[in-house]
Fold this protein.
Amino acid sequence: MHFDAIGRVPGDPILGLMGAYASDPNPNKFDLGVGVYKDAQGLTPIPRSVKLAEQRLVDRQDTKIYIGGHGDAAFGKVINELVLGSDSKLIATQTPGGTGALRLSADFIAHCLPGRGVWLSDPTWPIHETIFAAAGVKVSHYPYVGNDNRLDVEAMLATLNQVPEGDVVLLHACCHNPTGFDLGHADWQRVLDVVRSRKLLPLIDFAYQGFGDGLEQDAWAVRLFAAELPEVLITSSCSKNFGLYRDRTGALIVCTQDAEKLLDVRSQLAHIARNLWSTPPDHGAAVVATILGDAELKRLWIDEVEAMRQRIAQLRAGLVEALQPHGLAERFAHIGVQRGMFSYTGLSPAQVQALREQHSVYMVSSGRANVAGIDATRLDLLASAIASVCKG
Ligand code: LMR
């Protein structure tokens, strides 16, 4: 038969955990797998600003006609201002989530910059690896976090200094996924110098704006690169900070100093997108445009993002504190230093497996824990589970 030669591939290393967690009957299970924010009730709520914007859309939206290849210009304007600041006059291309923006970038590189490779941090989000490979772009790596689970900026710079001129370097704007280790301002400046001197094209993935040090603070490196370099690509995601995960809302921002060249590049993006998803989904982007275009809704949303950010910071501190009685606070002190949803805990794949099998604690086999998924009322239980696999 036609399908006889087709084999089975393993499930997604991150999304696959959702099903495994859901079918675990243990009432004391912990979901630290896929990167979704959970509140004190263990729910991933729809932010109130989103609900209000959706209500307005239900009342006022009068057509579902196609939007163009770049999506809604109103969304493109406000998301660009969120990322690059209100002085920036660029219009972003709307994409199905940040993942869509990455795939569009990958296909753009493959089609319009043939022969250029992409350099990813080691480690990085596993889907970075597969997206560029699927687009036919050669993938290489620069060191980021070593076996000692520490950020190694010197090793990163040493490798970037060897990258062939013209290649693309993918950087995480903030809240590095999976490690949670972010570059400091001085580090970013050094990376910028190398990118400039080696004539590399930076592609900055900005998926967690607002979850690190704040909405404006998290945009610092992106704005530095956009101001200092002639050409930059930026992918932005609204999944986490707007809680729009399933509505697939994201954007690709192309920065060029040459206005005519920008039109050329944007024409290529619309052409590539037409072959990928034709036109992007509208609902989430319409919600974001409604929120960011209304002073009151925007104020409410900023407060909601800040509340999520603060809760994650408290969970980080709380987990380190809960590990104290087990003599493990120092060993896991990095959890308090890392930023965003994720922590590269330093737990081995065997320890991650033991946590899952013996304590129903679900995290990615790399040792990445979604701190934003922790139940604050059961920090002691989680700390005991971690202690038992560390000592066992
Ligand atoms: C994650 O890394 O868990 C999130 O970015 C969700 C995803 O799509 O993998």
About this structure: The radius of gyration is 21 Å. The chain has a mean pLDDT of 97. The first strand starts at residue 30 and ends at 31.
